[in-house]
Design goal:
- The chain is elongated and about 90 Å long.
- By secondary structure, it is of the alpha/beta class.
- It is built from 20 helices and 18 strands.
- About 45% of the residues lie in helices and about 15% in strands.
- A 6-stranded mixed sheet has the order 7-18-10-6-9-8, sandwiched between helices. A 5-stranded parallel sheet has the order 2-1-3-4-5, sandwiched between helices. The protein has a 3-stranded antiparallel sheet with strand order 13-15-14, with no helix packed on it.
- The model has no long low-confidence stretch (mean pLDDT about 90).
- Helix 6 runs parallel beside helix 8.
Length: about 525
């Protein structure tokens, strides 16, 4: 490792031993004994880092810092000083100092700050690359041997963690390796779901937490403690997207993070209605037929969510009042913020945020959005940018001041699809690309999870011979008519409704305002 350094100190002659130490380590060190000379050197030469004394005759360290930053805004500057005053530290940090060392400094201290401020990315790339290569075999073994829900949750966490770390390295070969490993893990996950899902539905006492359990197991216990609860349901929100947003919230909230499993189909009509009703889809149809909308009907499939919440509270004999809000755009978020006093009137507030689902659909339909969210990393980046610059960030600030427990979750995630599976059906078959239901479906049975008796899976059956099929891994359903056009149009789009870790293993997070 090497770099060009500028060391500015009015006693620079006393630091020759330190400079020689750095030169032996491969660094080129230029020196200056005052601020004006340092600024002139920075005007005519390029440096990778500046070591800057705070207390010098003439221009002070902070004045020199400001001038250097005017010339080179991105150059790291490390302040080296005898002054331990806290207000000086605050001023230095406020002036965007990159590090702060107290005299006397030893050579290893200086070497550490150089590694942190110049070589951090290079070191992290090397460590991440080595770490993933060592972890590759363990992840593969976990995917082969995973026999319970907790193992699958932990496996998915590891895959997402490496996905985010490798994204920082820009190592395409390793990223492709992880992508392939995730695809193989998804095939193993599909086998696990095929084997166990019916048992989860039949015996709910031994099942993991599923969509209908959210209120009973997460919301009601907090209400019982006398806490105000805000349930935020971000439609189509994946765990990797949560990991990015969590960085935006960590300063303001204590975070308790978990994962749970979406029911099938992993779509709004089924999974989100199951959350709000506390029931499986067939139970909603049986108990509240006027609140269930069949697939073939043109009416919106999620228009009765507020009524379903009210019915669930009534069924559990809950006396709490609640408010319900659906935010489809920035204007809706602004309107809610303008009426934020309404949120303080209820012990329970339910807020549905549809931006990510809208983004997913827009990416399919718009070439421009597809370019902007060209891959998984770009998709996450747009989600982060939306959060930072929309009214949703202000909404969290409002909730922070309300002393409310915030439960963040979703109805399902989504997966980037790339492999078509041919399906033939009649005109009444639904349009979703990841699951189909109908009475005359023709499909390759080995490429799908088929449900020929929907009632055993607590799914509605519009006809006596209705079959559900679910796409596995990164597959999507395509019709033979206009097959090539259809495949080209939908390949590499984000879809949901089927079986994958991204769609089914989804975030369940509790935030509580930090007490400072």
């Amino acid at each position: 490792m090497s770099a060009r350094l500028l060391w500015v100190d009015d006693e620079i002659d006393l630091l020759k031993a330190h400079c020689i130490f750095l030169q032996k380590r491969g660094y080129e060190v230029a020196t200056a004994s005052n601020g004006r000379d340092a600024i002139e050197l920075c005007r005519t030469e390029n440096f990778d880092l500046v070591l800057l004394d705070e207390n010098m005759p003439g221009l002070s360290g902070l004045e020199t810092l400001a001038a250097i930053k005017d010339l080179h805004p991105n150059i790291p500057v490390v302040m080296v000083t005898k002054n331990e005053a806290e207000d000086l530290m605050d001023q230095a940090i406020g002036s965007k100092i990159d590090d702060y060392l107290l005299k006397p400094v030893n050579p290893m201290q200086i070497l550490l700050t150089l590694k942190k401020n110049i070589h951090q990315r290079e070191i992290m790339q090397e460590i991440t690359t080595t770490g993933y290569r060592q972890e590759f075999g363990r992840i593969a073994m976990m995917a082969d041997d995973a026999q319970d829900c907790e193992t699958w949750k932990e496996l998915y966490r590891r895959i997402v963690r490496w996905e985010l770390q490798l994204e920082e390295t820009a190592d395409e070969a390793l990223s492709d390796m992880l992508r392939q490993q995730k695809e193989e893990a998804n095939l193993s996950f599909a086998k696990y779901i095929r084997k166990n899902y019916e048992g989860w539905i039949t015996d709910r006492n031994t099942a993991p937490m599923l969509s209908p359990d959210i209120f009973k197991r997460c919301v009601f216990p907090k209400l019982n403690e006398g806490r105000r609860v805000t349930l935020l349901v971000l439609d189509n929100f994946r765990y990797d997207q949560w990991r990015i947003l969590s960085q935006e919230l960590a300063d303001d909230f204590d975070i308790e993070e978990d994962l749970y499993f979406s029911i099938l189909p992993t779509s709004t009509q089924y999974a989100r209605n199951a959350i709000f009703a506390g029931l499986m889809p067939l139970e909603i149809l049986q108990q509240y037929p006027d609140l269930w909308v069949e697939e073939e009907e043109d009416e919106g499939k999620n228009l009765n969510e507020e009524s379903l919440v009210a019915q669930q509270l009534k069924r559990f004999r809950r006396r709490e009042t609640f408010s319900y809000h659906k935010l489809n755009d920035a204007q809706a978020a602004d309107r809610l913020l303008a009426q934020s006093a309404l949120l303080r009137q209820h012990p329970l507030n339910v807020i549905v945020i549809n931006f990510i689902d809208i983004l997913s659909h827009a990416r399919t339909e718009s070439q421009m959005v597809r370019e902007l969210a060209s891959n998984e990393a770009a998709y996450r980046s747009i989600t982060q940018s939306w959060f930072r610059h929309s009214g949703i960030r202000a909404l969290f600030q409002c909730l922070k001041e309300m002393d409310t427990d915030i439960i963040i979750t979703t109805d399902h995630g989504s997966i980037r699809v790339d492999t078509p599976t041919k399906v033939i059906g009649d005109r009444n078959v639904n349009t979703n690309l990841r699951y189909k239901l109908g009475k005359n479906l023709n499909y390759p049975a080995r490429e799908v999870f088929e449900v020929k008796n929907p009632k055993r899976f607590m799914l509605p059956a519009p006809n006596i011979s209705t079959t559900y099929i679910f796409a596995l891994g990164s597959r999507f359903f395509a019709y033979p008519n206009n097959y090539n056009y259809y495949v080209q149009y939908y390949r590499n789009t984000f879809q949901h409704g089927g079986i994958s870790m991204e769609e089914m293993i989804i975030p369940l997070v509790t935030l509580r305002t930090k007490q400072r």
